[in-house]
Every structure is written in C-alpha cells, then in structure tokens.
Amino acid sequence: MLDDGDEAPEVTAPMATPEAAASTERGSYTGGDVSEFSLSDALDDGPVVLAFYPGVYSRTCTQELCELRDWKADLADLDAPLYGVSVDSPWSLLAFMDEYDLQYPLVSGFNNSIIADFGVRREESIMRGIANRAVFVVAPDGVVSYTWKATEPLTFPDTDEVEAAVAAAAEVE
Fold this sequence. Notes:
Layout: E1 12-16, H1 18-23, E2 35-38, H2 39-43, E3 48-52, H3 59-76, E4 82-86, H4 90-100, E5 106-108, H5 114-117, E6 134-138, E7 144-149, H6 159-170
Parallel strand pairs: 3-4, 4-5
Antiparallel strand pairs: 1-2, 1-5, 3-6, 6-7
InterPro entries: AhpC/TSA (IPR000866), Thioredoxin-like_sf (IPR036249), Thioredoxin_domain (IPR013766), Tpx_Peroxidase_subfamily (IPR050455)
Region (Disordered): 1-29
Protein name: Redoxin domain-containing protein
C-alpha cells in the first residue's frame, strides 16, 4: 500500500458521474454514459481524496458510501473532490449512484490497474482482486499526504482527519 510521502501513480480509469446517473434511466446505460478519470487532471484543481472500497451493494460499502455522501458537504468547503474507487463496472456504479443519490464520482477499477497501483488489491481469499477499504489524500504535486486502511470490518476513516489532511495538502499548491 502506498504511504505518506509516496508519489501517487498516474492512473486513468472509467468513471461514473452523478450527472450521468441522473440523466439516464437505470438499466439503460451505455458507454456514452461513462467518463474518464485521470488523476493528473483531477490534481490540476488541488488535492484529491480517493476512497477505495470492495464493492457497491455490499452491506458495509453501502453504509460507507452513504456516510461519505453525507460528509461530502463538509469537504466541499475545502475544495477537494472525493472519488470512490472499486472494481465494479461503470454501469453498476451508475445504478448505485442513482439509487443512493451520491453526488460524487465513482471510479471503476474494472479491467485496469488503479487498485493494484495504490497497493490495496486483495491478493488472497475467494474475494481476490477486490479493493481493501482505504483512503488516500493526494496533494496537487502528486504526493500522497494521507493514508488510512481499515483493519476491522465496519470501520471507516475519521473524516476530521481526512479534512485536516486535505487542508494541509491544499497548502502544497
């Protein structure tokens, strides 16, 4: 897993956006509803928060993503985008966003290396290949300035710590 002070990898991946989820009827998604996420492009506007999670529609991940949805208003004051990242396909991410009214993008680790590149890919068990629950704050210079990894089920990052890390990373600009 990447650690504080490590250079974040340049990654691109498919991304589901709130706008696409709202503008297309669930079950009617096409490739045209999928955007592209580029970490370097996202960093052009300041620090970025990446919240990795195993998968949508699981009990714990649904709870976490909804808590992040509710917390995002606080983060908006800090001017840092939040992106959820899992191995789910972009179409399942769009359906989840629509169902739970998420107002932040979800990045698809399906068929790309973003989860492995950040060192959070589960390598053992029947669930091999999914992301372990982790949060990274990446400063505008591309350096990881905060990391958190779940050590127990049903544990989530301390949002006050994430907010403080975002504020500190914004000073790097």
